[in-house]
Q: What sequence folds into this?
């Protein structure tokens, strides 16, 4: 028994370390870890001043309706465009009359340096016609440090890659209630559009 | 004196190479997932093993300590294969250097522990490492969800292939070790059997001689 003590202690230490590192074997990626650290649902969606494609300043919390929020950057080589194309399918899958009365889509840019109002307006025009209630937005006079804090509180991982202009980031979509609380998080990497639609409907129905 | 110069040159080259991998070449290794996971890590572990060969007589004895070190090594490998660890190692070079130092230590202790390790435990350990690499490799090949934000899904697949190759190589080495070990053990067992038979024959022959001698003695008496 004495001989087994050291190996057993080492094993316990190793399991404890791995459990600590993965939040109890629940989060193995930086995406899920950042989301986990932001706190359990439902929780408040952090406030940040935004400006839409037409230059109009707004805060999500002032609009008192459901919002499906996602994050992209226009220089993204692949993923962001795929995700927005999928989101377009979700948008058109929603029943008529819900958007923009009950629910709005908001796509916020990660890239404070390169994405401008002109660029997001031009990008949005590629989804036309008929995407009323889908706003593309930039942060409005928000420092990079404050934006990092906002993303962390929201549960979004984003790290610019030095010298490349690329940003490594999460692709989660957040359903925010009229009370400005995150009520559901969707992962388009794992969930189908139909599953996301079903979950949105379920949340809207209360 | 030439031995000392040789040792000095070895350690100089060793530390230069380790520093090269950990600092100037780190950006190159971190650029893609296969380079990071399937090249940088094994190179550092290999260098650790190479360093251990300079200490020819150093061996960890005592099953308790050996098992603890093996568990520690497996935990290290698991830790650095987690997507979160990989991402943070790419974002923070100092964290990456911690990983490289850890791999050096793992490689070093792998050799030092294996020197005096029971054959059965060595087979078990190798089998576990092979299984771990194969499982991770196949998972990386199959998963179509991005696990590491710093890399792409195609790089995940390439890394998976490399891990499967490493796992298969270790598995084959293990199989060869099993059969060689069994062969050696059979030979030893045969030798022991033969020895026992000889001893038994000697014993019975001795008894017969003693009996005969006794008879002779008796005869002589």
A:
């Amino acid at each position: 028994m004495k001989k087994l003590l050291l190996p057993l202690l080492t094993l316990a230490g190793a399991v404890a370390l791995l459990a600590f590192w993965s939040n109890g074997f629940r989060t193995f990626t930086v995406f899920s870890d950042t989301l986990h650290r932001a706190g359990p649902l439902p929780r408040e969606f952090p406030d940040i001043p935004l400006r839409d494609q037409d230059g109009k300043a707004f805060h999500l919390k002032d609009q008192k309706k459901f919002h499906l929020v996602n994050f992209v950057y226009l220089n993204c080589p692949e993923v962001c465009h795929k995700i927005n194309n999928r989101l377009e399918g979700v948008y058109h899958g929603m029943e008529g009359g819900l958007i923009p009365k009950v629910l709005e889509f908001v796509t916020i840019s990660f890239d404070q340096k390169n994405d401008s109002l002109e660029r997001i307006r031009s990008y949005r025009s590629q989804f036309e016609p008929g995407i009323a209630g889908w706003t593309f937005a930039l942060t409005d006079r928000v420092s990079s440090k404050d934006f990092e804090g906002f993303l962390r509180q929201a549960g979004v991982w984003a790290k610019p890659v030095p010298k490349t202009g690329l940003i490594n980031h999460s692709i989660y979509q957040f359903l925010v209630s009229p009370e400005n609380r995150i009520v559901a998080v969707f992962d388009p990497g794992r969930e189908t559009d139909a599953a996301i639609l079903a979950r949105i409907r379920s949340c809207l129905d209360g | 004196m030439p031995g000392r110069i040789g040792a000095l040159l070895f350690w100089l080259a060793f530390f230069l190479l380790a520093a090269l991998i950990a600092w100037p070449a780190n950006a190159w290794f971190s650029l893609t997932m296969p380079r990071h996971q399937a090249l940088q890590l094994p190179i550092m572990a290999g260098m650790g093993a190479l360093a251990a060969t300079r200490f020819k007589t150093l061996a960890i004895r005592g099953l308790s300590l050996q098992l603890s070190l093996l568990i520690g090594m497996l935990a290290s490998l698991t830790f650095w294969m987690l997507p979160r660890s990989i991402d943070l190692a790419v974002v923070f070079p100092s964290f990456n250097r911690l990983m490289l130092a850890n791999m050096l230590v793992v490689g070093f202790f792998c050799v030092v522990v294996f020197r005096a390790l029971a054959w059965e435990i060595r087979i078990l350990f190798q089998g576990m490492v092979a299984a771990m690499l194969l499982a991770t490799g196949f998972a990386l090949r199959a998963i179509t969800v991005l696990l590491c934000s710093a890399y792409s899904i195609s790089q995940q697949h390439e890394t998976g292939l490399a891990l499967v190759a490493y796992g298969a190589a270790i598995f084959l080495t293990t199989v060869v070790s099993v059969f060689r070990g069994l062969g050696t053990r059979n030979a030893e067992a045969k030798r022991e059997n033969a020895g026992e038979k000889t001893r038994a024959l000697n014993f019975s022959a001795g008894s017969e001689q003693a009996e005969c001698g006794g008879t002779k003695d008796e005869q002589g008496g």
Notes: The first helix of chain B runs from residue 2 to 22. Residues 213-221 of chain B have pLDDT under 50 and may be disordered. Chain B has eight helices and no strands. Chain B has one domain: 2-188.
